[in-house]
Amino acid sequence: MIQLKFISKIFLLLLTLSMFSCSGNQQKKTGEQTNLQAAPEAKVEINPEAKKLLDQLVEMGDYANSRDIPSLINPSSVYEELDSNILIVDIRLPEIFVNGHIKNAVNVEFENLQEYFKKNIDPSAFDKIVLVCYAGQGSSYATSLLRLAGYNNVYAMRWGMSGWNKDFAEGSWLDAISSEYEDKLETATNEKAQTGDFPKLNTGKTTGEEILHSRLDSLFAQGLSIALAHADELFEQPENYYTINYDRRDKYESGHVPGAIRYKPGGTLGIVDEMQTIPTDKQVVIYCNTGHNSGFATAYLRLFGFDAKTLTYGNNAFMHDKMVNEESTLSWLPFTEADIENYPYVEE
Question: Secondary structure of 35-98 in the HEC alphabet?
């Protein structure tokens, strides 16, 4: 009996030591796993003016991350609403405007848009204000700036006057579509740049609202051409640019501009961690299917001081045949004569 009790005590002691040993080994393994985990990347604080501007835009409704971006309207919808409470603002050059424009449209050049909205009209009196240009990219850029300024009823007409009548498309979209650089596309995934600060705005203003208006004044004064890029210059020296592919992943993987980095639409603008990977010391070119979405994105980035440009005509400017061939599988938006209406216009 005594011997049995002694054996039992020995058994319990060995069992306790075993449990303690297993517990200790598990803690050690857990500790080792924790030590192997990568430390979170240190966040870089953005400069005060950029932070105030960002906070101001969020307070105003965060247009860049709303369902309203991009604010595009088709020519067919504009035509159907011509007799309703809309205002059509044509931002083409006056000498082009007089040779043909939509009935009752007013001609206001890009540099004068903000002043026109402030002093010549009551924007809130219209259900819609539609900006029209040659191909849709310029009006997209301008519409984005006006939306960021707080004018929530402004739209850009898709395809510009090229979509209104073939007479205008022949000098714009129909001449611009090209497949010249299809054989130079790459499929490799390129990594984003290292995290850094936003550009220094140096407006000298103290509030987010003041900074916003100062930046808008500057961008309208700079004109439109400074925000536009062209396929030839991008493909001739791609290393000179930080090229952003602003589209779906499957489209990016099917072929993109050499060196281009994909940024997600709806997950980039206003997202600090994402925008911090866009360089401040290099010219940025953004492109999408048609140049419309990238026009909106370009306006936002330029508002924050990035040297950004939108690639006019988007993919249509360098891989049009590929877009046509893969339209059903990848939902490309190749411009064709089917996109051109035959709506009337007036001359004066």
Answer: HHCCCCCCCCCCCHHHHHHHHHHHHHCCHHHCCCCCCEECHHHHHHCCCCCEEEEECCCHHHHC
Q: Is the pLDDT of residue 21 over 60?
A: no
Give Cα separations from 126 to 18, 129, 152, 153, 270 (angstroms). Answer: 81, 7, 11, 8, 29
Burial 64-79 (b: 16+ CB within 10 A, else e): bbeeebbbbbebeebe
Closest of 208, 225, 201, 177 to residue 323, by C-alpha: 177
Which pLDDT does position 7 carry in this prediction?
38
Cis ω for the linkage preceding 40 (within 30 of 0): no
From 18-32, 48-62, 100-114, the region with the lowest mean pLDDT: 18-32
Q: Which residues pair with 87 in a beta bridge?
A: 129
Which of 42-56, 118-132, 159-173, 201-215 is predicted with the least confidence, judged by mean pLDDT? 42-56
Residue-wise pLDDT tens digits, 276-293: 999 999 999 999 999 999
pTM: 0.87
Per-residue burial over 6-28, b if 16 or more Cβ lie within 10 Å, else e, is: eeeeeeeeeeeeeeeeeeeeeee
Residue from 140, 104, 277, 251 nearest 198 by CA = 277
* Dist. CA 138–CA 112, nearest whole Å: 14
* Residues in Cβ contact with 318 at an 8 Å cutoff, skipping those fewer than 6 apart: 178, 179, 180, 181, 182, 231, 235, 257
Using alpha carbons, select from 300, 37, 347 the residue that is nearest to residue 147: 300
